[in-house]
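Title: Comparing notes on inverse folding

I've been comparing how different people in this forum approach sequence design from structure. To keep things fair, I'm posting one structure and asking everyone to reply with a full sequence. Here's the target:
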């Protein structure tokens, strides 16, 4: 606990717990759900422990007899625990009574969705501001006010430092390890997915190598809208024993249940300004470090611009190199963490013919839009903001903020009003 680094979700929990009786914190293994929840719990049931699971199964009253906040850790290992909490809420449980953490959607769904009783809260790997690599000077929440706040600050991080952050990962228990130990942990994380997590989700992987090949192809498509059929083809080039499409759909479903896939949806505007927007999601893994490990990329490979041998699709940033794609994935992770705290939705924009693309669209409510481009470079010119200008011309005052996220040293506003923000200077 003495080494606990505050998370953006802490503020959300502190705001919600005094008013809500039950909150479920969801996200992939290793993001820090249990550590965050334990700081608020008076009693914890570790339901991945067979003994504690059997205790709760044998005596449901143990759930309600304790004083203070009760934490059900890995609740999906005992799906009926969800319904026990839901019934306790129906019976008048006090605010802050229950916390649940889960790293997978249970294979045996609870009898009730929990709607209106249990509030779900997503937890993702650590953003740059949570890692403490710099002191943010630009607040996303302030940008979303539409007041055009002053932009300023200086950042010492450069592109190689961001490569280091990608490889180190946002998993709290991994990012502080040595390079070799972190690589071993990430390898073990991926192996566990295949060997343990898939069977626990009721899906036996008959050919682990095929699943890993599909995961590598998905990683190679990071930050693109590449079709799943193309990902399958890239996973099995020239293979006569190509897995059935239903098999790879099963892969995708289980990886989604495990919160390992975190696709970014295409923007669907509420008005009629656009008639030709593509809606395919951009592909992202929960942490860009997982994509880098799947593709056997280290800091030196990213800095050299080494391409993945199975690179598919296209991305902004650095052409055929994966660095641009993984940097965009890192910034996408950051903005999703900050946007959740600001109660904003995140998506991306791409026209069907591909003539206009904007990396990140944030909907701040009441039709207010903020748009962000991601650039793996220190400097920004008029070419880098052309899509942002196009969007502003298209929707006018509905666009309350536009910015380019860079690897440069300075945060400032251009004469055209578009903000330039070094990645490490952006915070919640």
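Reply #1:
Here's my take.
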């Amino acid at each position: 606990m003495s080494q606990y680094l505050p998370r953006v979700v802490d503020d959300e929990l502190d705001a919600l717990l005094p008013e809500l009786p039950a909150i479920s914190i969801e996200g992939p293994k290793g993001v820090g759900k249990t550590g965050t929840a334990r700081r608020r719990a008076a009693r914890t049931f570790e339901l991945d422990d067979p003994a504690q699971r059997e205790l709760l199964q044998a005596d449901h009253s143990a759930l309600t007899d304790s004083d203070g906040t009760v934490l059900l850790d890995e609740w999906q290992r005992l799906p009926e625990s969800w319904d026990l909490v839901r019934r306790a809420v129906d019976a008048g449980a006090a605010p802050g009574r229950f916390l649940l953490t889960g790293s997978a959607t249970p294979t045996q769904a609870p009898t009730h969705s929990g709607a209106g009783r249990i509030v779900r809260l997503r937890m993702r790997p650590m953003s740059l501001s949570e890692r403490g690599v710099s002191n943010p000077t630009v607040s996303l929440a302030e940008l979303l006010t539409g007041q055009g706040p002053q932009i300023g600050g200086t950042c010492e991080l450069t592109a190689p430092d961001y490569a280091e952050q990608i490889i180190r990962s946002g998993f709290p228990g991994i990012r502080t390890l040595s390079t070799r130990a972190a690589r071993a942990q990430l390898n073990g994380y991926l192996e566990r997915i295949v060997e343990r997590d898939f069977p626990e989700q009721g899906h036996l992987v008959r050919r682990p190598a095929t699943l890993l090949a599909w995961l590598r192809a998905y990683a190679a498509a990071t930050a693109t809208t590449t079709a799943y059929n193309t990902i399958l083809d890239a996973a099995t080039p020239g293979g006569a024993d190509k897995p059935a499409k239903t098999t790879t759909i099963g892969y995708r479903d289980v990886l989604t249940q495990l919160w390992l896939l975190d696709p970014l949806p295409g923007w669907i505007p509420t008005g009629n300004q656009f008639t030709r927007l593509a809606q395919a999601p951009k592909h992202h893994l929960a942490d860009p470090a997982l994509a880098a490990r799947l593709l056997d990329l280290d800091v030196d490979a990213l800095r050299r611009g080494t391409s993945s041998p199975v690179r598919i699709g296209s991305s902004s940033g650095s052409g055929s190199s994966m660095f641009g794609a993984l940097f965009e994935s890192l910034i996408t992770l950051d903005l999703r963490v900050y946007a959740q705290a600001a109660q904003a939705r995140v998506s991306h924009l791409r026209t069907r013919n591909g003539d206009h693309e904007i990396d990140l669209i944030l909907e701040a409510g009441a039709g207010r839009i903020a748009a962000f481009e991601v650039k793996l470079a220190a400097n920004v010119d008029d070419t880098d903001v052309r899509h942002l200008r196009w969007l502003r011309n298209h929707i006018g005052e509905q666009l309350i903020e536009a910015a380019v996220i860079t690897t440069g040293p300075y945060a400032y506003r251009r004469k055209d009003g578009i903000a330039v923000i070094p990645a490490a200077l952006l915070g919640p």
